[in-house]
UniProtKB/TrEMBL annotation:
<protein>
    <submittedName>
        <fullName>Transcriptional regulator, AraC family</fullName>
    </submittedName>
</protein>
<dbReference type="InterPro" id="IPR011051">
    <property type="entry name" value="RmlC_Cupin_sf"/>
</dbReference>
<feature type="domain" description="HTH araC/xylS-type">
    <location>
        <begin position="170"/>
        <end position="249"/>
    </location>
</feature>
<keyword id="KW-0238">DNA-binding</keyword>
<dbReference type="InterPro" id="IPR009057">
    <property type="entry name" value="Homeodomain-like_sf"/>
</dbReference>
<dbReference type="InterPro" id="IPR003313">
    <property type="entry name" value="AraC-bd"/>
</dbReference>
<dbReference type="InterPro" id="IPR014710">
    <property type="entry name" value="RmlC-like_jellyroll"/>
</dbReference>
<dbReference type="GO" id="GO:0043565">
    <property type="term" value="F:sequence-specific DNA binding"/>
</dbReference>
<dbReference type="Pfam" id="PF12833">
    <property type="entry name" value="HTH_18"/>
</dbReference>
<dbReference type="Pfam" id="PF02311">
    <property type="entry name" value="AraC_binding"/>
</dbReference>
<keyword id="KW-0805">Transcription regulation</keyword>
<dbReference type="InterPro" id="IPR018060">
    <property type="entry name" value="HTH_AraC"/>
</dbReference>
<dbReference type="InterPro" id="IPR018062">
    <property type="entry name" value="HTH_AraC-typ_CS"/>
</dbReference>
<dbReference type="GO" id="GO:0003700">
    <property type="term" value="F:DNA-binding transcription factor activity"/>
</dbReference>
<keyword id="KW-0804">Transcription</keyword>
């Protein structure tokens, strides 16, 4: 699609995930009153319920966008939790990653194939999985540049003693200020300490739901979440279904708690 130069009259939201990228020109992403400039090769993951608008800058601004139901992303994250660093929770800031000309050509060619394919989960994942694998490989390679203090903290971030304290637990493991840790997490992972730790909490919640008979309240307490409404909101945002529905769908061979 070609983006017009007129400023959007209103920001819009959507109930699906969107992946978009510029194949030519420049654009302005307007998000919650803030503006950022997108250039050719910028790949942006926009989560649901995030007010935003796009505006072309100059002439000949071409944008490609893919819309994906939240249920499809929820099912994908249930199997590949690490993909959660790209598909943020609703209302979170979009993740933006720049692609070089070769990578941009690959994703554009894959999008053409997806457009011509039947609207099935199989064909959608044939598009998504190679893209996610490529981005994760790059993330892993970039991790070599992580500060030693952050690498050490992330190693223990999955310990329940740390998980229970959430972002504060992660920051405490670094010995740095919250602001400094937040800047480093944004730089290397495109997310805040709170987003990262909540993603890890929900990953462990999914494992406990399918591998133990623990009650939902016990699981939330194990992860340091005292407010059950908050626990349900986090889980629903991550997996597009309630914890109870997730357990019913995925748990096998474990006695259900009364």
């Amino acid at each position: 699609m070609v983006l017009g130069r007129a400023r959007p009259k209103t920001l819009h939201t959507q109930d699906y995930h969107e992946i978009c990228w510029l194949v030519n020109g420049k654009a302005r992403l307007i998000l919650n009153g803030r503006k950022c400039t997108l250039i050719e090769g910028d790949l942006t993951f926009i989560p649901p319920d995030t007010p935003h608008g796009l505006q072309g800058v100059g002439d000949d601004c071409h944008l490609v966008n893919i819309i994906i139901p939240a249920t499809e992303i929820g099912a994908l994250l249930a199997r590949y939790s690490r993909a959660g660093q790209f598909f943020a929770a609703p209302s979170a800031a979009p993740v933006r990653i720049h692609r070089g000309i070769r990578a941009l050509s690959r994703i554009s060619t894959a999008a053409i194939s997806l457009e011509a394919a039947p609207r099935t989960t199989l064909h959608l994942e044939a598009f998504l999985l190679p893209l996610i694998a490529e981005l994760l490989n790059e993330t892993k390679a970039a991790a070599d540049g992580l500060p030693a203090w952050l690498q050490s903290a992330l190693v223990v971030a999955d310990d329940f003693e740390v998980l229970r304290d959430g972002a504060a637990g992660l920051v405490a493991m670094t010995g740095k200020s919250h602001a400094h840790v937040s800047r480093s997490m944004q730089k290397h992972f495109g997310m805040t300490p709170s987003d990262y730790m909540n993603a890890r909490r929900m990953h462990h919640a999914s494992r406990l739901l399918t591998g133990t008979p623990d009650t939902l309240a016990d699981i939330a307490q194990t992860l340091g979440i005292s407010n059950m409404s908050h626990f349900h909101r986090l889980f629903l945002a991550r997996f597009s279904m309630t914890p109870r529905r997730y357990r019913e769908k995925n748990q096998k061979g474990v006695v259900q708690p009364v």
